[in-house]
Design goal:
By secondary structure, this protein is mostly helical. It is 48% helix and 8% strand. Strands 1-2-3 form a three-stranded parallel β-sheet. β2, α3 (48-62) and β3 (67-71) form a beta-alpha-beta unit. α2 (15-26) runs parallel beside α3 and α6 crosses α7 (123-136).
Length: 203
């Protein structure tokens, strides 16, 4: 059972504990996966987020035999989350750090995602993506697979816009399903990267 802050934190006093307990009941006999768990840390003490964390600690104890709880998030923020309540550290038995994907792995993920959409992508488009992955990987929170998915979805939109003005007779299955270099968005801004000239793709 996957959930996040919106599923656990209420909008008035007392409602947060009710929502947390409900999620633990729903996850009974299985796994409760709390994504971006660090978002429960409010900017101030004793807020609704702390109420959620306190209740989670209590429910982890009450359901220690029938619910596995997984907290997910970026390492630095997760340490702040664990430090928020002393009871959390003692109840989290394992910590697993996942390394960022390598550039070649991001390229493989790209091909897989495109293939699942029954589309193809040109070598030039892949080369452009590789440069973007290399730039993005210098950051600690670029998103890994989520970053790949975002770029592909934007490329699909750009492809649709590029072909919008064509006559129906000009459209072919290959044209409709091929992501070109010019479809890849210029969405990653790096201060040290050089600006590229504006170009056009001939469909």
């Amino acid at each position: 059972l996957e959930c996040g802050r919106a599923d656990l934190v209420g909008d008035h006093v007392g409602s947060t504990a009710i929502k947390v307990k409900k999620k633990f009941r729903e996850a009974q006999g299985g796994v409760l996966f709390i994504d971006e768990a660090y978002s429960l840390c409010d900017g101030y003490k004793n807020g609704y987020g702390d109420e959620a964390i306190n209740t989670i600690v209590q429910e982890m104890e009450n359901h220690r035999e029938d619910v596995i709880v997984i907290f997910a998030g970026y390492p630095d923020q997760m340490q702040q989350f664990l430090d928020r309540n002393p009871g959390l550290t003692s109840r989290v038995a394992f910590r697993v750090d996942f390394d960022d994907y390598l550039i070649d792995e991001l390229m493989s993920i790209t091909r897989l995602m495109v293939s699942k959409k029954n589309m193809i992508i040109t070598d030039a488009a892949m080369n452009k993506l590789k440069v973007m992955y290399e730039l993005a990987s210098r950051k600690n929170d670029y998103g890994n697979g989520r970053f790949v998915r975002k770029l592909i979805e934007e490329a699909e939109m750009n492809l649709a816009q590029r072909l919008y003005g064509l006559d129906e007779s000009e459209l072919t299955e290959e044209l409709l399903s091929t992501i070109e270099e010019c479809d890849i968005p210029e969405s990653y801004n790096d201060k040290n990267s050089h600006k590229k000239p504006i170009g056009f793709c001939v469909a």
